[in-house]
Amino acid sequence: MLEVIGLSKSFKALKAVDGVDFVLNKGESVGLLGPNGAGKSTTIQMMSTGLTPTKGQVLYNNSDALKNPKQLRRDLGIVPQDIALYEELSAYENLLFFGRLYGLKGKMLRSKVDDVLKLVGLFDRKKDRVKNYSGGMKRRINIAASLLHDPKVLIMDEPTVGIDPQSRSYILDLIRQLNKDKHMTVLYTSHYMEEVEKLCDRIYIMDHGKVIASGTKQELQALMEKEETVWIEMAQKKPAFKDALVQDPTFLKVTESEQGYKVIAKKRPSLLNDLFDYAKIHQVEPTVLAIQTPTLEDVFLHLTGRKLRD
Ligand SMILES: Nc1ncnc2c1ncn2[C@@H]1O[C@H](COP(=O)(O)OP(=O)(O)OP(=O)(O)O)[C@@H](O)[C@H]1O
């Protein structure tokens, strides 16, 4: 349905996006996951024809959308990262304004505005001025604005950043509903892997302007087949214990949290015993020692050596 091939964008010497290939099939919910600065926003700005690529193609239904952007623009709903609403106007008036930009008018426009207000759960608050809304409510109006013209493809740029948990869960449910019930194709950009894991059929992981891995959650986890993730908790952490693990090349990555350490290690029958041996040497008494299924965070760490939110 929507495909980008070899998409690149340079800002002077900086390669913000570097040869990205990417397919969005009809009805799919696809996640674009990557840390800040990975190139996600720049990619989606180019695929929605808002920014001209330095190189590459954007195809919509197999035709060149950079040369003929009309059909894609008509079918596309975009929720940008920055909220752009008129604070002094009510939510209803804001949506009337955006609806007119899409060419809607009269009764049709008013009924569409009511529909999208109901969808985002703010129909009862439609007469309140936007300046009195919470950040999460403003975000929901932003999403409502992107839905006024019944888009076939919805592209969302980190729509849950910095908002209250109630709005966050409302937005996630809404996206699921738009995708599963209304069969809207969704591209969801985020650096929260748990959102992408829950919402998306397929995932692209981006880092430093490139797609470094893609697939279903299971396919991405399979990248770690030769490794295992072990979680160790203890009453008191010992830096010398951690240092010893870090120095052992069979432990590929050791990260620390409040209660203990997460270790990505080469898979082997002796793994837990090896860890117990180190614990004994350093007089560490583990309260939990558990082998875990890798998360997308682990996959990311494995592929890049960095945490998603570094
Ligand atoms: N207009 C611009 N001019 C110069 N550099 C830019 C511009 N837009 C983006 N960049 C740079 O390109 C890189 C990729 O930015 P981009 O916003 O696409 O990343 P992102 O993955 O969306 O991250 P974030 O979650 O922070 O938005 C960054 O280093 C950013 O500073």
TrEMBL record:
Family annotation (SUPFAM superfamilies): P-loop containing nucleoside triphosphate hydrolases (SSF52540)
InterPro entries, sorted: AAA+_ATPase (IPR003593), ABC_transporter-like_ATP-bd (IPR003439), ABC_transporter-like_CS (IPR017871), P-loop_NTPase (IPR027417)
SMART domains noted in UniProt: AAA
Alphabetic keyword roster: ATP-binding, Nucleotide-binding
Keyword Lyase part of the UniProt annotation: no
ABC transporter domain: residues covered: 2-233
Stretches that traverse the bilayer: none
Signal peptide boundaries: none
Any GO molecular function: ATP hydrolysis activity
PANTHER family to which the protein is assigned, alphabetical: LINEARMYCIN RESISTANCE ATP-BINDING PROTEIN LNRL
Protein name, as recorded: ABC transporter ATP-binding protein
Organism: Halolactibacillus alkaliphilus
